[in-house]
Amino acid sequence: MALTLTPKADATERLDLSPLTPSKLQGTATADIANLTIGCGLHPVMVGDVFAISGDISDGEIVIAGGSNRYDNVGAKLNAGTIRVDGDVGHFAGTEMSGGNLLIEGNARHHLGSSMSDGLLTVKGNVGDRLGAPRPGVRDGIAGGIVIVEGTAGHDCGERQRRGLVLIKGQVGDYSGGRMLGGTIWSLTGFGRGLGVQMRRGTIITPKLEAPLSTFLDCGIHTLGILDIMSRHYASILGDTLPALPTGPVRRFAGDMASIGRGEILVPIG
Amino acid sequence: MSLDLTDIMTEPKSHRPETAATINGVTIDDTFAEAFGMSATGLIITADSQRWARQAAITMTGFGTSVIGCGAECGIDHDVPADETPDGRPGVRVLLFGFSPDALEPQLKNRVGQCVLTSPGSACFNGLASEQTLALSAGPRFFGDGWQTARKLGDRRFWRVPVMDGEFIIEDTSGLTTDAVGGGNLLIIGTDRVGLLETCERAVEAMSSVKDCIMPFPGGIVRSGSKVGSKYAGAMASTNEAFSPTLRGASQTQLDDKSVAVLEIVIDGLTASAVAETMKVGLKTIIDEGAERGVYRVSAGNYGGNLGQHHFHLKELLN
Predict the structure, then answer these.
(1) By CB count within 10 A, which of A123, A136, A236, B111 is most buried?
(2) Residue B304: Cβ-neighbour burial (10 angstroms; 0-12, 13-18, 19+)
């Protein structure tokens, strides 16, 4: 049975759940897990103060059976195994993930998957600003892995992303893909203003593009083989859980010409 | 006065090996093919149709019969169905063999750059899973003149190079093996040149079904088996008079009075076992065709066993 943490009550302060990953807890007795500090205030709050603990970590799976937008750093530096949260999480969920599977059944606040490099991060609800973007003082955004958001996402999504795939099924806020270096950001609904501002390389896929920045240049309609390769690659990892990438004709906007202009916004046709 | 010809004739100098077996009228020499360690890489070339994938592959593997003069030995391994290629289009797997990784890399660069990049609708991917790699895109991607972009998916990086019919996609690296084997061979000896060629064609067709091997000569068959060296300076190889029927009375021949023509099938493989399996299939096909087709003997080329690391004994391939 997975290590299950059931909230005893609503969180009264912000909690740092970064110690709770399968690899960090491997070999730790349940009593010792209960004594791990997760509070951020003057009076240390322990895991056992907040959660009822059952099961064990031997199969590499953690279930947080209830969420709160005060649960910060859930799955931070996750490198293997699975964490499932049956509810909301706070800021920095999945930050610097390098492997494993983080599933959030509710919403996530800002900086989801910040600077992650590998693994699968899924959010069933909505996500705040700066999805995947680097925290202050950090240079790079997402460097690999896959993020799937079933709901909407806020502003500055995918800033300085270098590799990996970010799929948002709902609407995304302004300035997504800013200063992007590579990888793919894909919305099934659309993006706000300033899409791809200062992007150097990388691909943004959107079903509509009403007002592209003037520094993105319309290169016409094309069928791109790389989309077939990406589609097959991601299907081999995720199967049917990922919508089919658009492999037919797309209108290609090259930009941002205010930078080196090797990025692109693709708008599927038909 | 009559002339006693025995005074001026040379004794026949046949150095024919012992016989290992005679099956269906075909004698198998008790000898072995001597083969060498080589470096090799594999590619999967795709295109909009099987025809164009094959066209690119044929062009790329042209002039790739022997490392002696071509720099690399190249050939088509097999067709790859669309559902097994990275981009879901029909493909062809080609193999390239060279003396060393350093010798192989410029061949890869030039052949892909001149023959695959240029072929309409083509894409070029790694076709050999291996920890060692060669820089596949090192030359062709720079054709993009700065417009090329890379896409990393998992452990693989793909380059997109803008060209006149869209984008040429090429994988960053291809796998490399230094455990490949070059120079497996069968020498097929016949009493009829036409029947001999037809038998060899059937053998090559059957041998082509074995994966991880190529037969780099025209149609898989070579009629100019060579020996190392020459009386002429600068020639690395010269005719193998021991298997040249028109010299059988004048040289240290390995032929006998019945032989009219000899053809050779040379095999390069990613592993010694793949070469052995291919030779085995070829040998069986030749025997099954039988002596009625004009083939009466099969031998193999070697250098006495001191040069090549791999010895493929024909009698062991009969089992």
Answers:
(1) A123
(2) exposed
Q: Which of A124-133, A237-246, B10-19, B187-196 has the lowest mean pLDDT?
A: B10-19
Per-residue pLDDT at A270: 77
Side chain identity at B65, as an amino acid letter? T
Whether the upstream peptide bond of residue A256 has omega within 30° of 0, thus cis, is: yes
A8 touches chain B (CB under 8 A): no
- Interchain CB contact of B152 with A (< 8 Å): yes
CA-to-CA distance for A116 and A94, rounded, in angstroms?
Answer: 7
CA A162 to chain B, closest CA, distance in angstroms equals 10
* Confidence (pLDDT) at B13: 56
By the 8 A CB rule, do B294 and B191 touch?
yes
Contacts of B108 by beta carbon, 8 Å cutoff, 6+ apart: B41, B96, B134, B135, B136, B174
- Contact B84/A at CB under 8 A: no
**ipTM of the predicted assembly exceeds 0.90:** yes
Interface of B with A in 242-281 (CB under 8 A): none
Gyration radius (Cα) of chain A, Å: 19
Closest residue in A to B83 (Cα) is: A232
With beta carbons less than 8 A apart as the criterion, state whether B304 and B111 touch: no
Q: Exposed, middle or buried: residue A211 (CB in 10 Å: 0-12, 13-18, 19+)?
A: exposed
Residue with the two structure tokens 């009076």: A43
- Quick one: pLDDT band at residue B313, thresholds 50, 70, 90? very high
Residue type, A64: I
Task: Give one word for B154, left, alpha or beta, with left for phi > 0 and alpha for psi -120 to 50.
Answer: left
Q: Which pLDDT tens digit goes with each residue over B21-61?
A: 999 999 999 999 999 999 999 999 999 999 999 999 999 99
